[in-house]
Each structure stands twice: as structure tokens, then as C-alpha cells.
Amino acid sequence: MARENLIFICASLIIMQLVIVSSDDNIDWTTIHDELRKLAGNLRKKCTGETGATVDLLEEAEWGEFPDDDPDSKTKLGCYLRCVMEKGGVMKKDGTINFKLLSKMTPQAFKQVGAEMLDECRDATTGSDNCDIAYNFNKCMYNANPVAFLVI
Q1: pTM above the 0.85 mark?
Q2: In the predicted model, is pLDDT for residue 73 greater than 60?
Q3: Which domain holds residue 59?
Q4: What is the CATH number of the domain that holds 63?
Q5: Can you tell me which family this protein belongs to (predicted)?
């Protein structure tokens, strides 16, 4: 039961990167992202520890700075993203991304923007290993909607 709850929470947090982009200028996206990270608990700490990814690297990715020209940083970021996705239950051990689960877990208010982002990134699921697949998928998600994108 605890594992199911953890998977649900982690997957929900990944889905929350699909936050709807609103025309309301009063939305404080920084606060929303900070609250989502708090809900993730130790997931960030655990995955940074396992992969060697730094908070700076994660923050840069959130701003669209993906380290394509730095193989070491690219691997660390990709493996961090893989860690979060696997622990969240949305990436299988074989690297397959469970789009059905991602879509199903998307809160109703975010269904449209989430579906658009996921549809745009269905083909961005290739790579030499699971870290590379997670990197390519998340980079696509950023490009699909930079405002809503979040690195847990």
C-alpha cells in the first residue's frame, strides 16, 4: 500500500508539470513549483544522491538550459529524470513511458494542456538507454510548454 501511494504521489507530481497556462497574470508559478517540490518529499534528494545531479543542473534545465554539449552533465540530468520517472511509476524498467498512466493521472483542470504536451512528445522517447530517453522526453516537454514545465 505504501509503495502504491508513493507511486501515485510521484506520478501525480510529474503530471503537475502539465500545469495549465492561464492568462491570469496573478499566478505565482514559483510558489506553485515550490509547493509541488515539497509534496515530492525526499524524491529529489534521493534521485540527486543516486545520480550525482546537482540542484543547479536541475534548475538550469527548468529554465530550458539542457546540457547537450556536456556529456557528463547530460548523463547526470538524464539519469536524474529517469530516476524520478521510474520511482513515479511512469517509466518502466525497459524505458517505455506509460502515456496512458500519465494521461489518466492528469488532473481534470490540466487535461487539455497535458494532452497537448504528451501528444507532442510521444515520439521523443528514443535514446541509447533509459537516462537518454528520460532526457529527450523531458526536453521535449519543456519545449512543448516552458511555463508549465517543472523538474521535481
Answers
A1: no
A2: yes
A3: 28-144
A4: 1.10.238.20
A5: Belongs to the PBP/GOBP family.
